[in-house]
Amino acid sequence: MYVWGLLHLLGAVLEAEDGGADSAPLPPCRSGEQAAQVVDYSVGFLPLSFECELKGSVGYEADVIPGYVNPGAVGLALAAVGSAVASAYVTELRLRAAAREGR
Fold this sequence. Notes:
By secondary structure, this protein is α+β, with helices and mostly antiparallel strands. The protein has helices spanning 2-16, 69-101, and strands at residues 38-45, 48-54, 57-61. The chain is built from two helices and three strands. The chain is rod-shaped and about 75 Å long. It starts with a helix and ends with a helix.
């Protein structure tokens, strides 16, 4: 899930760095009336984000990463941690049972 979001982010960065005749304002930042004030962009990796920076203010987040990616990645990461903890717990129970039986 995280890699899927990274692919979307990479596509937006490649599109922003293209620099051709159609590069101003940055293509990923063209939605909304603030597009004419975009001067740069920044990316975030935890959570995945593509932020369009404006003249004289903080900026806004562009909709280049699907909305389900960050919550899905968190859910899957929690499921992986839970599975690892459960696996370690079951292994510990089996080792204790084997030690009680004298194996």
